[in-house]
Amino acid sequence: MKPLAQQLFARLREAGVDCTFGIPGDFVLPLYAAQSAAGMRTVVCTHEPSVGFAADAYARLKGLGVAMTTFGAGGLNMVNPVAMAYAEHSPVLVISGAPEVGGRHADLRVHHMVKDFDSQRKVFAEVTVATATLDNPGTALTEVDRVLEAVVTQKRPGYIEIPRDMTNVPAAPSTHRPTGHDGEGNPEALAEALREIRALLSQAKHPVLYAGVGVRRNMLMAQAVRLAEAWSLPVVSSVLGKASFPESHPHYVGVFVGKVGSAAAREAIEQADLVLTVGVINSDVNTGFGTFPIPHAKQIIIDERDTLVFHHRYEHVPMTGMVTALAGLGPDAPRPAPAVRKASAAAPAAPVPRADGALTTDGVIAAVREVEQSSYSFLSDIGDAWFVGLELDADVFMAAGYYATMGFAVPGALGAAVAEPARRPFVIVGDGAFQMTGNELATLARLGVDATVLLLNNNNYKMLEVLDQPREYYHLEPWDYVALGQALGAAGERVTTADELRAALARAETAKGPYLIEAMLDPHDDAPIMRQLKQLTAAARAGA
Amino acid sequence: MKPLAQQLFARLREAGVDCTFGIPGDFVLPLYAAQSAAGMRTVVCTHEPSVGFAADAYARLKGLGVAMTTFGAGGLNMVNPVAMAYAEHSPVLVISGAPEVGGRHADLRVHHMVKDFDSQRKVFAEVTVATATLDNPGTALTEVDRVLEAVVTQKRPGYIEIPRDMTNVPAAPSTHRPTGHDGEGNPEALAEALREIRALLSQAKHPVLYAGVGVRRNMLMAQAVRLAEAWSLPVVSSVLGKASFPESHPHYVGVFVGKVGSAAAREAIEQADLVLTVGVINSDVNTGFGTFPIPHAKQIIIDERDTLVFHHRYEHVPMTGMVTALAGLGPDAPRPAPAVRKASAAAPAAPVPRADGALTTDGVIAAVREVEQSSYSFLSDIGDAWFVGLELDADVFMAAGYYATMGFAVPGALGAAVAEPARRPFVIVGDGAFQMTGNELATLARLGVDATVLLLNNNNYKMLEVLDQPREYYHLEPWDYVALGQALGAAGERVTTADELRAALARAETAKGPYLIEAMLDPHDDAPIMRQLKQLTAAARAGA
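Structure tokens for the assembled complex are given below, as produced in the milestone run.
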């Protein structure tokens, strides 16, 4: 029997993991040493919240990401990013060291401990789909497989705790039997559903594919493209599902955000007589805060587990089988390619420059849309940065589009760069979020990651002011972000006009290592989606 | 009936809170507005982990600290500092906003949410002594009082969640009845215990007071001084209890860390025939990782709840009553003041300068010991910074001395500065910890806090290397910390020799705002306690 840790890293490698993210600490040191011996790469971040975000971004692209930290001070500092992975269906595995099992007794109080030895696992049980403490060499690998299966099939985080003295014990082989989440479901139900949906799609005059994050989580991107092409469907994506369908594809229309965001996407949904919804997670954000629900009567919903046609449900007809089958079919008579209005954004294509030449959010959007968008991995933080990101046509795009935490984008770029090294990360981040986790720029610099980091600086928690009113406590100190970046090893510059931004973006494109562009924005300037939200709010108040 | 929030802030003010720490976010905005209307001051930090640490430091000095954040992305990013407050007995109250109660239903998924509306409260239940969700205006204030009482009497964190639509509802008066934790306990048991302890103390030839963190948590610092003076006791403190007894006092000997640390403290414990232990939390760290347990047969242990004499226990004889009573007594015949060897530190008083003039940890300790130590609030982060801190004679000292998380000291200085504005915070922090939360320097600068921040830069997770061996993944990038500080609004300088450090400390003492001193240390140089630990480890290996 081989040592537990050695077998664990072999299992992770089989599952497609070629790099973990973490911060070493005493209870996890033997595991780090074993990882090193196993030839597994690791990226050490500066702070545990960043570890979770980096592993999450990696998981979104590769199907599994690993965050490895020490007990207590390490693991418990990662609850927020793991909660986000739960909310947004990202398959992140947390591996934590822990105090030795041998010699534990009720009165013993070791450092890094909270209430008892099980406190940390219980905390993670609230934000994961499966947890295990590997305190038995006979069952440890079976437990690893149980947690891994839950993470990989449910696309949500799991938690494994390894007491320090268990790291290298000889561990019995796994006896885990997969519980049969094979993505195929019930073949008879699938055949029946397929017949009905094929007929409905064939009859529909204006069918639309509404692609959600489930498409990417189940790695169905290629099948979704074939489906759209076979049936000549225009494609709208959900907020969280942005770029689950490649946005450089001619069928792509835009992101649907209810009454805000892309007018073209809204019109496509509005005018559709059949909406084929795949892998969309319903949330308040998804429909522009409930401003535009899609009626059941014209919607087919294909999910991880079931397929729903209008009001009747086919159980155990999950998306992998259904999307693959539909992609292999097509209408009896070939259809012309859909007419797609590509002016997909809420932003004006050519924004009016401000008289004083100052940079506006519209100007930022126009400038970023001029870069070769399909070549980047875009990562947007929340707030205005997210609203800018939603205006782009990206083939890879990540944001905390449902959980809406701040601080994801800069550390997320680490995960994106490691998972898809051929793509240059392009981070869009507000000053508030950058103050939280922007120091991870140093890790990007250490790894020599070529990345563009566009910091939108309005010296404010802008979203909060819009939701409320100007308050002293929404004001952010004007840090010298360019100097900060330089102190961390990243080159950069400050821009105040659209022309300067264009020139900076061109310089960033060929820069070695991370390149920080601090774009100075008027705190009173609004992103296009923000303008729409304000109008809706004002209209609602006037009506009330 | 007044609005809930208004009554809540009135209760907090009664409990001695004059400032909260937090970051606003949508679900907590009405509570922030109510706080503003109530005239309660708040300090907005840059990142939630810092919020928790700042509130903790404030709580340690004032007896109650408040951390106020939004739901999910805010609250769940604060689990680690709250876990530390639990482990180290710090009375921190977490107040979190939450989604509206009205309109909640099982299928609704709002942003910032994890499994269900109760997930966050359940997470905090694992790291607090009491939690409440204020979803009922009839019981809300009673619940507030229940949680507050638990926090204040048990000196551990509590959690209150306020749904957004409950913030300003008229709330019924509290019907909470205090459960009688009055610190007095059972008067008959107290009288009996007092008689026995008085006789034992009178007979003892070499009694010692061993003061723990409970002395400070129960605000018994003045009584402890009277007790030591009345009975002519030399005073040794525990690791976590450092500076619970003023270290500028002539009776103070040093911090007891088992076989490492202060030789004088070890000898005082060793030679004592009676150790009067007050409020010491037992942990692996406290006795130098078990290197030097104090025998029961010569120990009286006075705790929050009971008093233990050798092997017999007086139940409900808590420290407040016992210490106060003992301080009012004294031996029949007056005793001379104890002979205290003041060379209390493990460090040599006059370190040997290095031939190349480079700065050593011994040199740092000697230089800091030359400042007027009793005038500062010292905050040490963990690792070498902590080992330096343990060598000082401080009247106010804070560190994660049991939970051992990184990142406490810089944000902790915010709490210390607000709680005791007359004292200048003096932060000692390693580069690893500074990379986690050092950006809070910006908040110190914004508030105009005059503080000295001494950053020990050895470009390494030094502790881990000592515990293990040199590894590539323990290496930290050499950031330009002085430039970083300047970008955040803090002046500073880099020093490489002991003389430069002395000059910098003098400049810092009169600087306005935070002043960062980056002390460049050889990564192979060791703190004195670290040298001792290495020797012990080597001896143990040789013996094994």
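Residues 187-327 of chain A form a domain with the Rossmann fold fold (CATH 3.40.50.1220). The radius of gyration of chain A is 24 Å. Further analysis is deferred to the final report.
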